[in-house]
What we know:
It is a single chain. By secondary structure, the protein is mainly alpha-helical. The chain has a single domain (9-184), classed as Four Helix Bundle (Hemerythrin (Met), subunit A). It contains eight helices and two strands. It has helices spanning 13-34, 38-61, 67-92, 99-122, 136-152, 163-174, 193-209, 211-241; strands at residues 130-132, 179-181. The longest helix has 31 residues, at 211-241. The chain is globular. The termini are far apart.
Amino acid sequence: MIRKDPPPPIAYLLPNFFTAASIFTGFYAIALALEGSFLASAWFIFLALIFDGLDGRVARMTNTASHFGVEFDSLADIVAFGVAPAFLMYLYVGEEYGRIGIVASALFIIFGAVRLARFNVTTSRIEPSVFIGLPIPTAAIMIAIAVLLLERYPQYAEVKFLMLPLGMVLAVLMVSNIRYPSFKKINFKSFHFLRFLVGVIVLAMGIFIYPIEGMALVAALYLVYGPLRASFYLIRRFVHRA
């Protein structure tokens, strides 16, 4: 039996560096929103998503996953994907609607924190194959994409107010029991490789041609997948009982 040596202590710094980078980019997104640079703020939330995806994968690749890293990652998520998009939404549109804007933005942060706390409690030992409730990074990206679309198509500025109900719907979905797929445990061996490759290439080319619209479509499909799946199983259960 081959004994694997534990990673050197300095190796634990690498995944936590990406987590710290996620916090920094989240904070910088807040600073940009305060300055009125809403477009740049939205892109920095996307950058925080990249760092957030890297920290866990680097930890697994280097065998440096730790309880500290999990807790640090959760604190980073509430800054980058809770506070930052909520500030962006409030300053971009919510400020014009007074207390309604405050409530919508605050609910996004509060329910996002509840979502993270529930995730940490229910997945303390194993990684889930599905998420219970909408993941907070997805909710944050939806806010960022809404800003990017409104900035790209200023002729639709009159529907900007719809960001507030969108934020509240996202907040509710985060604390719901609706299941969303997790891509951390995909078994690629069970996939038809050629079909999967063709699908990825077509999707990548579409996003390359229409980056904002393509990302918006992908995020929207993921968002509605959960409620549609839940509705399908609810209807099927009702039919079977009838």
